[in-house]
């Protein structure tokens, strides 16, 4: 914070963070992804607490940088990004808005059943797993048996 | 050197060395999907390494960081299991090594989730979700290849016979393990043997593979007393850049 400025409200900061896209899946925000765990003022310093999705996810450091850039653009100079690993990230923390956006983008959202509910392209229920892993640590590779298109499935963990 | 530091190095060194081994497959696996899967598992393991070795340096007093531990120690200071430093061999041997370790890793991490040390418990809770997924894939692949063609069955049995002498080290307990078990920080590795045996036997039966009769065990990795000749070659590959250009940054 610059001297003399009013501290932005925490609710406003959450709104700004909801405009920061995930670097790998830019259709959803870091808030949609459920990795921003806390936003709080510690005196004059804003502390944003982030949790990693997968422990080796290369996007983690990019995400921290993008959060920092976005908040500095809003005039927040004293900023700290803290990492918290417990409780571990779960796909239950994906927002409903985020799930809808994933599906619209062509990525099947996570489902507790252990596989996609339907093909994100044509909506058919008959789908086959091609590989347990996919283009990023958080996704697996599936194929629709009806329209035959391959698609990403957001792994449920 | 505290017992906790030693334990954390054992954890982080095994995940680091296995992660590096799997990384060797990048661009070489028999199918694109397998290539991606191996790299993804490697990534998880290296992420876990950052947490284990990061905590090790914190416990030590922050005189060096996790990268120093990974890149500036030599063979005799590594505490990884002998199993994970064994060469990749063919895809079957890589899969067999992975499954033998994953089955142990899940059981160990499940116990570590209840560690008396909150920092250890937090890392375990994070890692176990990833490692359950690794086990799902590696056990499924062992079954598919073991109960596959004559060729794949033969290769998987050969891989099992070759790697079996390295499995026993996962369950060895020494003074460090006793101290950690006493403090409630980590389970005695020997206690994990019985549930591992049950799970391994069930998968081997499904894979139509025969468990080797001998329980002779190679030892010396996690104690650091005697690594196999393969670790030095792996480290030379992994460490040459930071050693040739110390303090180089992206």
TrEMBL record, chain A:
Residues 118-155 form the PaaD zinc beta ribbon domain. Coiled coil: none annotated. It holds the Pfam family FeS_assembly_P. InterPro entries: Fe-S_Maturation_MIP18 (IPR052339), FSCA_dom_sf (IPR034904), MIP18-like (IPR002744), PaaD-like (IPR011883), Zn_ribbon_PaaD (IPR056572). Residues 11-72 form the MIP18 family-like domain. It comes from the Bacteria. PANTHER family: 1,2-PHENYLACETYL-COA EPOXIDASE, SUBUNIT D-RELATED, FE-S PROTEIN MATURATION AUXILIARY FACTOR YITW. This is PaaD protein. It comes from Jannaschia aquimarina.
From TrEMBL, chain B:
Gene3D superfamilies: 1.20.1260.10. It holds the Pfam family PaaA_PaaC. Signal peptide: none annotated. GO terms for biological process: phenylacetate catabolic process. InterPro entries: Aromatic_CoA_ox/epox, Ferritin-like, Ferritin-like_SF, PaaA_PaaC, PaaC. GO terms for cellular component: cytosol. SUPFAM superfamilies: Ferritin-like (SSF47240). This is PaaC protein. It comes from Jannaschia aquimarina. The gene is paaC.
